[in-house]
Backbone:
């Protein structure tokens, strides 16, 4: 058995931005853990006990629960993990990508199309499975990058959030790292500078490097309730632009 404790990551609040997308709450192993909007960042950590392979699923929303964002917000969905005890602005290359999704050449869907056109199946959810990693504290960074203004310099919009987890029993998987925040996303790099109306979406280069081969993966749909009750606390997050950073109502991942 593996035991994961999920708890709040402290907020880094700066000046107000035009944040119009957020996480309403978190689901763990298919069970909703309550409205997480604007939870005080000093809320004591909630802990969970659950088997290996816990599923962690943010529920995204627009202005009210169930109205997942509409319009042209195409772009990649990305999830990373890093050891929390060594993470920080001056700690390079500690993040490992667990999941990403951008464009499906078969059906022509971007990640936001799955949220919108398959709304009954997704309910604004995507999920990842926590890998069988060594005991310790980790940060999980979930992020959507929207490209509707990415034809302009620094036009890509980033919506990241971080949740800290605690793994209490030792697994054998070793996270390779290789991704750094800040540093991985560079203004004007291909994938952040992108024209939805002119560039070929089948050639879109997803930022942040490849998904780790040892990742259990994830998906864009709502999971059914599993047998193991869990709990968590969390908060809303922010939007920022590379180059001219603006942040509101949330915490930095």
Residues:
């Amino acid at each position: 058995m593996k035991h994961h404790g999920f708890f709040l990551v402290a907020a880094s609040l700066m000046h107000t931005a035009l944040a119009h997308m957020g996480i309403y709450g978190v689901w763990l192993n298919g069970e909703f853990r309550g409205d997480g909007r604007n939870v005080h960042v000093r809320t004591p950590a909630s802990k969970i006990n659950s088997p290996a392979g816990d599923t962690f699923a943010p529920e995204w929303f627009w202005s009210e629960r169930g109205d997942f964002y509409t319009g042209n917000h195409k772009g990649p969905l990305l999830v990373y993990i890093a050891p929390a005890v060594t993470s920080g602005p001056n700690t390079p290359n500690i993040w490992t990508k667990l999941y990403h999704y951008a464009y499906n050449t078969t059906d022509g869907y971007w990640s936001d199309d799955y949220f919108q056109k398959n709304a009954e199946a997704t309910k604004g959810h995507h999920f990842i499975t926590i890998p069988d990693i060594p005991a310790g504290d980790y940060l999980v960074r979930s992020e959507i990058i929207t490209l509707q203004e990415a034809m302009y310099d620094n036009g890509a919009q980033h919506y990241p959030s971080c949740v800290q987890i605690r793994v209490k029993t030792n697994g054998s998987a070793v996270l390779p790292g290789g991704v750094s925040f800040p540093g991985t996303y560079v203004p004007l790099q291909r994938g952040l500078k992108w024209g939805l109306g002119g560039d070929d979406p089948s050639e879109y280069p997803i930022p942040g490097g490849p998904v780790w081969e040892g990742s259990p993966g994830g998906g864009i749909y709502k999971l059914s309730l599993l047998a193991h009750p869990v709990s968590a606390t969390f908060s809303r997050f922010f939007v920022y632009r590379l180059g001219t950073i603006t942040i509101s109502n949330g915490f930095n991942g």
